[in-house]
Amino acid sequence: MSAMSGRWRPAVISLGATLLLVSACAKSEDSGTPTAGSNASAGAQVVQSAAPGAKTCTLDQFGGQKVDLKTAKIGFSQSEKEANPFRIAETQSIKDEAAKLGIPAGNLQTTNANSQFNKQISDVEQMIDSGVQLLVIAPLNSDGWDSVFAKASAKKVPIITIDRKINATSCKDYLTFIGSDFEEQGKRAADKMAAALGNKGSVAILLGSPGNNVTTLRTKGFKDQIAKVAPDVKIVFEQTGQFSREEGQKVTEQLLQSNSDIKGIYAENDEMALGAEVALKGAGKQKGDVKIVSIDGTKGAVQGIVDGWIYSVIESNPRFGPLAFQTATKFFSGEPIPEDIIISDREYDQSNAKSDLNSAY
To answer: What is the pTM of this model?
Structure first.
């Protein structure tokens, strides 16, 4: 898939105008066997040129030592159980790129916090104690990392955060953040919802997990944009679904009991959207009765568009492996690294969901 396939919305800061590709094939958590995914060219992450004057960091500024990634010990900390397709694709992308670069399997330590923040902190601290020379972290929460920063700083271990941002100082506590513009995702979802409802009607928000910048910014972007472009669309219900399909279903069932005439549901990830779909079916709703707009780009949600249950999906691309390792390579070679590396995300609707289904993960 080329960068021109589907629809893209450019972001603001990145490592460079670079197109990075990685297979979206991922293993099943239960079986350990590969599952059907997109081909190698379908997993493109696209980043845009850095904004003029954007803050950067070099190895000299950070104060670390040059490291050869092919012989280095590297740690990757995953935040959530790999049952969510986003997490499956994210972890597999890190492993695949490490293998592609010739990094010995034994040199890549991977941990999973299973949505327990204390465990993630402990996991990362143990990896630092074991001598890792680079950390890639998918943070569960945006705050509460002080003990990790203290340990990492003492050993000058650079930290690359992906997907969610940590509230800290770049080039000191961590090196850089790689991920989407979450507020922009919320705005794009609002534009889609306004179009779906003809700029009027009642809407519910299935909020993501509290305590991280993804939920905060996707909510802010959606609310701000709805107020701007469709003031007659009223948000009448908000409740966290914890980014979980099961919780998304439960919350939607509660929603339908108190707001049976709801017209739209904004789900802050696809898992909650798919849970909402199950709840709508259980309540006897028909396709299109309630417009669902969500964020992620999983194959199940894009199929939901094809089937008529979901109106639109804004992508959040989880294939961070190539960009994370490319960023680390440039950093250790002395090149400046941007504080934020923001990727562009495509979107799916009825115009392209069927033809571009294999681009989903």
So the answer is: 0.86
